[in-house]
Amino acid sequence: MRRTFHTITEQDNSDTIAENIVHREREVYQYDLNIENYEALLETLPKDDWPEHLVQYQGKTADQIPDEYDEICNQLNYRDRVRRLLKTERQELAKAEAILNVLLEKIPENGRAAKIAAALQRILAREGQ
User: Fold this and answer.
1) pTM (2 decimals)?
2) Are 115 and 81 in contact (CB under 8 A)?
3) Is 21 exposed, middle or buried (0-12, 13-18, 19+ CB in 10 A)?
C-alpha cells in the first residue's frame, strides 16, 4: 500500500528516488572498491592453512602469542580477518545492489539518466562541490 501525502508531490518523490539512486550507487561503488582491495591484500598474505603447531594461537591477540611466532601468527590472523571482511562486504554489496535495482525500476527508463544527472547536481551543490 502506498501512502497518500498532502505535502509531497510526485516531483518530490521522483527527485528523492533519483537522489537515493545516486547515494546507493556510491555505496555499491564503495563495496566494490573494498572487495577489490581486500582481494589484492589477500594475495600478499599467507595462503596455506594454519600450521598444526600454531593453531592454538588462531584468533589470539598479539600479547597472547609467543614472540618467536609473532610475525607468522599476526599475518595468519590478519588474513583470517580480511577473509571475514571480504565475505561481509560481498553480502552487503548484494543487499545494496538489490535496493539499487529496485530504485532504478521506480524511474521510467526514458527519463532515468536525466533525472539521475539532475539529482547528482543537487547533491553536489549541497555538498559545496
Assistant:
1) 0.85
2) no
3) buried
Mean pLDDT, range 112-122, rounded to an integer? 97
- Specify the DSSP class assigned to residue 48: S
Q: Distance between CA atoms of 115 and 25, rounded to whole angstroms? A: 14
How many CB atoms within 10 Å of residue 82? Answer: 17
How many whole angstroms separate alpha carbon 102 and alpha carbon 96?
Answer: 10
Taking only the tens place, the pLDDT of each residue in 3-20 is 899 999 999 999 999 999
pLDDT tens readout for residues 46-59? 999 999 999 999 99
Contacts of 93 (CB under 8 A, 6+ apart): 28, 31, 32, 35
Confidence label for 35 from pLDDT (cuts 50, 70 and 90): very high
Residue with the three cell numbers 607468522 = 72
Report in angstroms the alpha-carbon separations of 67 from 27, 64, 74, 79, 102.
41, 9, 11, 19, 52
Residue 104, burial from CB neighbour count under 10 angstroms (0-12, 13-18, 19+): middle
